[in-house]
């Protein structure tokens, strides 16, 4: 069985480079991870705030959850990092960066 088609996704590293080119003073603040439990499932939650410039009055905020423990060899023991990357990709997408093809970052598509 073939894996998911990721041809429409823009990787977070590429979104970040595009955003920094547009806003050279861009800064990302990542929350302390939280553990969230719903029914019998546990997730790591990370929120990021992206400031376009130091005095940005309307920074972009996005949150992502990653199953804990990770369900693939690539996500196990990297749940917080994957959640942070997904949250950053989503925030940059909300800011219009890399959304020509898809808002969801490639890591989300690959992990689902």
Broad shape: globular
Largest sheet: 4 strands, antiparallel
Structural class: alpha+beta
- Outline the low-pLDDT stretches: none
In sequence order, what are the helices and strands, one letter per element? HEEEEHH
Find the count of extended strands (DSSP E, 2+ residues): 4
Number of helical regions = 3
Distance between the termini: 15 Å
Chain-averaged pLDDT = 87
Q: What is the strand content? A: 25-35%
- Rg, rounded, reads 14 Å
Estimated helix fraction:
25-40%
Short structural summary:
The protein has 3 helices and 4 strands; from the N terminus they run αββββαα.
What do you see in this structure?
The protein contains three helices and four strands; from the N terminus they run αββββαα. It is an alpha+beta fold. The longest helix is centred in the last third of the chain and has 16 residues, at 79-94.
Compile the SSE list and pairings:
Blueprint (H helix, E strand, L loop, with lengths): L11 H11 L4 E4 L3 E5 L2 E11 L8 E8 L11 H16 L11 H6 L1
Antiparallel strand pairs: 1-3, 2-3, 3-4
Question: Top keywords for this entry?
Answer:
alpha+beta; 4-stranded antiparallel β-sheet; single chain; 112 residues
